[in-house]
Specification:
single chain; alpha/beta; five-stranded parallel sheet; binds flavin-adenine dinucleotide
Length: 822
């Protein structure tokens, strides 16, 4: 029997080796157009980043060693250029450009997928690469070895794009990721992806989401990357990673059937529409076991498994069937591990499959054991019978085994009740007695049984204050560090005594940090007559992640470095009386902050404490806590999923700010609440802000309700809005040029006159004053709650505006001696 195989990597090489094991007499010819076979394409990004130090480690076999071991005629640098099924032959071209014919009894196609490279202007410029094989890898490696890559742009935020971003960052480049979708890693749902956004920002990676690249231009030694939105980025190197397409050219030309998803159609024996021609790997489409729809699944595990199955069918006849893959994947994104299996919300919605979700935050190990790390699990399931439809996990350690357990259940069409029944090996160094996936199952069970009615973060964003009451049941200290805009605080332990403060005619949305205390509070409320109470799924942690605003210019990574540089110990070393170390790893918010507070309460002035936590929001919370309490944050840093701060206990009179020279107790900052959008009042606001900024004071302007109209962009991008948002847009001034005077506006004549007179007298316009304020370092904060109420989205506001809540304003007001409401 003569077997011919096209493609010598994952599917092709696996099949060749298996055919030989099954039939010692068979003739096997393996065609590969590249130089290498059976190499580790999944390791290529790590070789570029220097994590895998030797190129040779990428190769499991050389063509020669593989050929000898398995008695296979390996023909590299040889491309199959046509199939002739009618006479059972293929045409191929060798490295000398000679064309020959080879016959076969059985033919296997494993040609993989090819990277998408749209015909954009300048796409062939030097410095732009795709990454698919060893030749691409060598080209990128050569470029990074011979050029200084200060700034790298990665286009496309799939797992290969993110792996490249991490590895280029590892090489020392400043990295920007550009992605057309509003999130990275489309197999996972938005709030889970948002945790990745936050982590990338913390690592100093710039993220440009919902941005489409339109072209490139070489400028000097670098490139300019242009976006549809009008923005552009400078780059020394560009990695194009916007997806792949199945290699179907040969198959189509030979009239082999392709399917609705665009891949080569195969039956359950992995045979194509033509007898004795088989296909595997990235090139094929196959029915998804859960949806029944054909789909493309570009992953190594299915390609290897299909290679083994197909080999048996080619040797022994069609006996072994392939069951299909549900898309189980995992990726390392800096310190995070991100994994997914099954179907995400987008696909469930697209296929009109009813589902419910649960999001749970747990620890990888027993919380008391060193090294316990947080883990977030989201599962999507059938609302009637609990059938598991999809699962995603974002965490640090132990993510892999959890996703594999869920994938195993899901592949066998099991439900959330089976999650609960899973028996896992437990000792503190490995897990916790209540495993994160069991907790996910319990919570899902509570949701299905209506024991815990839930609301999701996006519904809270849309909630209308007239019918919804947001109830934060965390402690007062946690509430003081920030809450969901508009939320009222009754700590869980006080709830039974303060029920009279809760309205009876509204939907009560209860929330806590992660959902557990919210659930306890919900039980109290439901049993005490508040029948419309619901718990926020995933708590504030999920809400915060989902509403996280990307901070490209205010990178925590950079701030961390700056903080370290400005450490007073470095500038003027000072003996520290006592230095304590506190391990708050494994504790969920507010655990680390409370532990830190308790330790500091027991310290003497001038003593220091170093606190290490695994909660991703810890450094931000510690900073806010210090600002409020007057204690001093000395350093903050993050590494391998651990967040460390050093705090010095200080009496207020001795407290200095981060620059080490401003006594904070002599508050000198100024804050302005800009509530009105009257032109005259807006002018007064910016004049005052500029005046205050000129004296060197920190000035913060908090724009709320109508005041938001003064900081809208003139050329706004189009944004999707609900009906109320659209109505507000029609009724409100679209930007500062449309503002009216508070008196004598006379259908707009008054404001025109005012602008005319100001111009004549050489007084700066509102827009110029506003620009000066930005240049003078005045901080603009837009009120999140007002934005939600008035349907204003982030994209409509000036780029320099930060979004914040009341806590953000209060923090500035604490440090100020003048607070104005205009
Ligand atoms: C950078 C990178 C990282 C990845 N990381 C992961 C990961 O972490 N996890 C994971 O599950 N998957 C990962 N993958 C995907 C995984 O490698 C693929 O799913 C898998 O290799 C597909 O196997 P295949 O046999 O279909 O195609 P490939 O392994 O791509 O092999 C196809 C081969 O066919 C050759 N070929 C094509 N046409 C012809 C022709 N006409 N004549 C001769 N030869 C031809 C090509 O040159 C190619 O070498 C990664 C892929 C890349 C590129």
């Amino acid at each position: 029997m003569k077997h011919v195989i096209v493609g010598g990597v994952a599917g092709g090489a696996t099949a060749a080796a298996r055919i030989r094991r099954a039939d010692e007499q068979a003739e096997i010819i393996l065609f590969e157009r590249g130089n290498d076979i059976s190499y580790a394409n999944c390791g290529l990004p790590y070789y570029i980043g220097g994590v895998i130090d030797e190129r040779d480690k990428l190769f499991l076999q050389t063509p020669e060693s593989f050929g000898k071991r398995f008695n296979v005629d390996v023909r590299v640098r040889t491309e199959v250029i046509a199939l002739h099924p009618e006479r059972k032959e293929v045409s191929y071209r060798n490295a000398k450009n000679e064309v020959f014919i080879e016959s076969y009894d059985k033919l296997l196609l494993s040609p993989g997928a090819s990277p998408v490279k749209p015909a954009l202007k300048g796409i062939e410029s030097e410095g732009i690469f795709t990454l698919r094989n060893v030749a691409d890898t060598d080209a990128i490696k050569k470029f990074t070895n011979t050029h200084k890559v200060n700034h790298a742009v990665v286009i496309g935020a799939g797992f290969i794009g993110l792996e490249m971003a991490e590895n280029l960052h590892h090489l020392g480049s400043e990295v920007s990721i550009v992605e057309m979708a509003p999130q990275v890693m489309t197999p996972i749902d938005f709030p889970m992806a948002a945790m990745v956004h936050q982590h990338l920002n913390q690592k100093g990676v710039n993220l440009y989401l919902s941005e489409t690249v339109t072209g490139f231009e070489r400028k000097g030694n670098g490139l300019e990357v242009f976006f549809k939105s009008g923005k552009s980025l400078q780059a020394d190197l560009v990695i194009l990673s916007i997806g792949v397409r199945p290699e179907t050219t040969l198959a189509k030309a030979a009239a082999i059937k392709t399917g609705e998803a665009g891949g080569i159609w195969v039956d359950e024996y992995l045979q194509t529409s033509v007898k004795d021609i088989y296909a595997v790997g990235d090139a094929i489409e196959f029915k998804h076991p859960l949806t029944g729809q054909s789909w493309l699944n570009y992953l190594a595990v299915p390609a290897n498994r299909q290679g083994r199955i197909v080999a048996d069918n080619m040797v022994f006849g069609n006996k072994t069937t392939y069951e299909g893959a549900i898309g189980t994947s995992i990726a390392k994104v800096f310190d995070l591990t991100v994994a997914a299996t099954g179907i995400n919300e987008t696909l469930l919605n697209r296929q009109s499959i009813a589902f419910k979700s649960s999001t749970t935050h747990s620890g990888s190990n027993a919380g008391y054991y060193p090294g316990a790390m947080p883990m977030t699990i989201k599962i999507n399931f059938d609302p009637e019978n609990g059938l598991l439809l999809g699962a995603q996990i974002v965490g640090y350690t132990g993510v892999d085994k959890r996703i594999d357990q869920i994938a195993l259940l899901m592949k066998h069409k099991k439900s959330i009740y089976d999650l609960i029944q899973l028996e896992h090996a437990y000792a503190p160094p490995f897990a916790s007695a209540k495993d994160p996936i069991a907790i996910a199952g319990y919570v899902a069970q509570n949701i299905i049984s209506a024991k815990m009615p839930v609301i999701y973060w996006q519904d809270v964003l849309k909630a209308d204050a007239t019918s919804v009451f947001l109830l934060d049941v965390r402690t007062e200290e946690e509430y003081g560090l920030g809450t969901i805009p508009g939320a009222f605080n009754i700590p869980l332990d006080d709830l039974r005594d303060r029920l009279s403060e809760i309205p009876t005619d509204k939907t009560i949305v209860v929330f806590c940090a992660i959902g557990l205390r919210g659930y306890l509070a919900l039980n109290i409320l439901l049993q005490r007559g508040f029948s419309k109470a619901v718990n926020l799924s995933g708590g504030k942690k999920t809400y915060d992640a989902a509403t996280y605003i990307i901070e490209n210019n205010l990178l925590l990574g950079t701030q961390e470095k700056r903080t370290q540089e400005l450490d007073l110990d470095i500038q003027s070393p000072k003996p520290v009386k006592k230095f304590l170390k506190v391990d708050a790893c494994g504790l969920q918010c507010p655990g680390p902050i409370l532990k830190m507070k308790k330790t500091i309460d027991d310290l003497q002035d001038g003593d220091r404490v170093e606190v290490v936590a695994t909660d991703a929001g810890f450094t931000r919370d510690a900073q806010a806590w210090c600002n409020i309490t007057g204690n001093r944050l000395i350093t903050k840093a993050s590494e391998a999923g651990k967040y460390t701060v050093v705090i010095e206990k200080a009496i207020k009179e001795q407290v200095v700010d981060i620059h080490g020279n401003q006594p904070l107790n002599v508050a000198k900052g100024k804050t302005l609440i800009v509530f009105s959008d009257d032109l005259d009042k807006a002018l007064a606001s910016f004049v005052l802000a500029n005046g205050a900024a000129a004296t060197g004071q920190k000035v913060s302007m908090f724009f709320t309700f109508w005041g938001l109209n003064t900081i809208k962009k003139a050329n706004k991008p189009t944004v999707q809005k609900d009906i109320f948002g659209k109505m507000f847009s029609w009724m409100l001034p679209s930007d500062s040029k449309k503002l009216s005077l508070s008196k004598m506006n006379m259908l707009g004549m008054g404001s025109l006159m005012m602008r005319f007179i100001m111009k004549k007298r050489g007084i700066d316009s509102l827009e110029l004053l506003r620009q000066q304020a930005i240049e003078n370092g005045v901080e603009f904060i837009a009120c999140q709650m007002s934005m939600d109420v008035m349907g204003v989205s982030r994209e409509e506001l000036l780029d320099n505006v930060n979004i914040g809540g009341v806590a953000a304003y209060m923090e500035r007001a604490e440090e100020s001696n003048v607070n104005l409401f205009i």
